C-alpha cells in the first residue's frame, strides 16, 4: 500500500516552511503527501507580513475530502491559529480514527512572529495533545505549553519533556535547536524513559522551516511503517543534512530555507 502522509498546517508562499516544506519533505522521504490548509500567510525569509485564517468549517470540509478518500497512514499537524480550527481538526481526526499523529505546536515563527492566538494555547493543550503519538516542541514552545521559563541544558529539557507527557501525548520530543554548544541535542521522552538524540550543530542563518521539516520527516517515515524511535533518529539525520546543504542555496535576503532535496539535487 502506498504510504500516504497528511499535513494539516498553514501555507508559506516563500516555500521554506508550513505546507510547502512538509510536502517537499514527504516527497524526499518517499511518502505521498496530502494537505489541509488551516491558514494562508504572507511571509518570506525576512518575516511574517500577514495571516489569513481559513474558516473552521472549510478546514473540516478539507479534512473530510481527504480522509474519506485517501488511506492516510500518518498525519503531521502544524499551525492551528484559533480555537475553532483546533476543534475542527480534532473532530476530524477522531471521526476518521487517525491514530498516528505528530503534533508540531507552531506558536512562533523563526523570525519571532506570533503564529498562535493566545486564547488557542489552552485548547491546543486540552484537546489536541492527548491525540498525539508524538509532540515536537522546541525550547520556547515547551516552555509556553508548561507556562514556565525556557529549559537550559539537557536535564531541564528532560524534566520538561516528562511533564509534557502528563498532558496526554504518548511521546514528547523537546528539540534543542535553540540551544548552544557543539551538538544539537533533542530529548525524547516516552513510556520507556528518556533518550537523547544528538547531531553536530551547524552554524547557519538558513534555518527557516526546520521545525516543520523535522516533524514532517517523522510523519513520512511513520507512514512508511518505521517504528517511532528509528523514525525520529532518521528524521534528525535528514534535517541535519538539509541544514548543512542549505548553505549551497541562495534563497531570499533573510533566514533561508533548509535544502529539502539535498540528496537529489546534489
Structure report:
- The protein is of the alpha/beta class and 266 residues long.
- The protein has one domain (4-265): UDP-N-acetylmuramoyl-L-alanine:D-glutamate ligase.
- Helices cover 38% and strands 21% of the residues.
- The protein has helices at 18-28, 56-67, 83-95, 121-128, 139-146, 154-165, 210-223, 228-245, 262-265; strands spanning 4-11, 32-44, 47-53, 74-77, 101-103, 134-135, 171-174, 183-190, 193-200.
- It has a 9-stranded mixed sheet with strand order 3-2-1-4-5-6-7-8-9.
- Strand 4, helix 3 and strand 5 (101-103) form a beta-alpha-beta unit.
- The protein is globular.
- The mean pLDDT is 94.
How would you summarize the topology of this molecule?
Elements lengths: L3 E8 L6 H11 L3 E13 L2 E7 L2 H12 L6 E4 L5 H13 L5 E3 L17 H8 L5 E2 L3 H8 L7 H12 L5 E4 L8 E8 L2 E8 L9 H14 L4 H18 L16 H4 L1
Parallel strand pairs: 1-2, 1-4, 4-5, 5-6, 6-7
Antiparallel strand pairs: 2-3, 7-8, 8-9
Helix pairs in contact: 1-7, 2-3, 3-4, 5-6, 7-8
Amino acid at each position: 500500500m502506498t504510504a500516504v502522509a497528511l499535513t494539516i498546517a498553514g501555507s508559506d508562499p516563500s516555500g521554506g516552511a508550513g505546507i510547502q516544506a512538509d510536502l517537499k519533505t514527504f516527497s524526499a522521504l518517499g511518502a505521498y503527501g496530502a494537505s489541509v490548509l488551516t491558514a494562508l500567510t504572507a511571509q518570506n525569509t525576512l518575516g511574517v507580513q500577514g495571516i489569513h485564517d481559513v474558516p473552521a468549517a472549510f478546514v473540516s470540509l478539507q479534512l473530510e475530502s481527504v480522509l474519506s478518500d485517501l488511506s492516510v497512514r500518518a498525519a503531521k499537524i502544524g499551525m492551528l491559529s484559533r480555537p475553532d480550527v483546533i476543534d475542527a481538526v480534532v473532530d476530524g481526526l477522531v471521526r476518521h480514527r487517525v491514530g498516528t499523529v505528530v503534533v508540531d505546536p507552531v506558536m512562533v515563527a523563526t523570525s519571532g512572529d506570533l503564529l498562535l492566538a493566545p486564547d488557542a494555547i489552552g485548547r491546543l493543550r486540552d484537546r489536541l495533545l492527548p491525540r498525539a503519538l508524538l509532540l515536537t516542541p522546541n525550547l520556547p514552545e515547551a516552555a509556553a505549553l508548561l507556562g514556565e521559563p525556557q529549559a537550559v541544558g539537557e536535564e531541564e529539557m528532560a524534566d520538561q519533556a516528562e511533564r509534557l507527557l502528563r498532558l496526554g501525548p504518548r511521546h514528547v520530543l523537546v528539540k534543542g535547536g535553540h540551544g548552544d554548544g557543539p551538538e544539537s541535542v533533542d530529548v525524547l521522552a516516552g513510556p520507556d524513559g528518556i533518550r537523547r538524540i544528538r547531531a553536530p550543530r551547524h552554524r547557519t542563518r538558513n534555518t527557516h522551516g526546520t521545525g516543520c521539516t523535522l516533524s514532517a520527516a517523522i510523519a513520512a517515515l511513520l507512514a512508511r511503517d518505521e517504528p517511532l524511535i528509528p523514525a525520529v533518529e532518521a528524521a534528525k539525520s535528514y534535517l541535519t543534512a538539509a541544514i548543512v546543504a542549505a548553505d549551497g542555496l541562495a534563497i531570499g535576503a533573510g533566514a533561508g530555507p533548509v535544502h529539502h532535496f539535498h540528496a537529489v539535487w546534489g
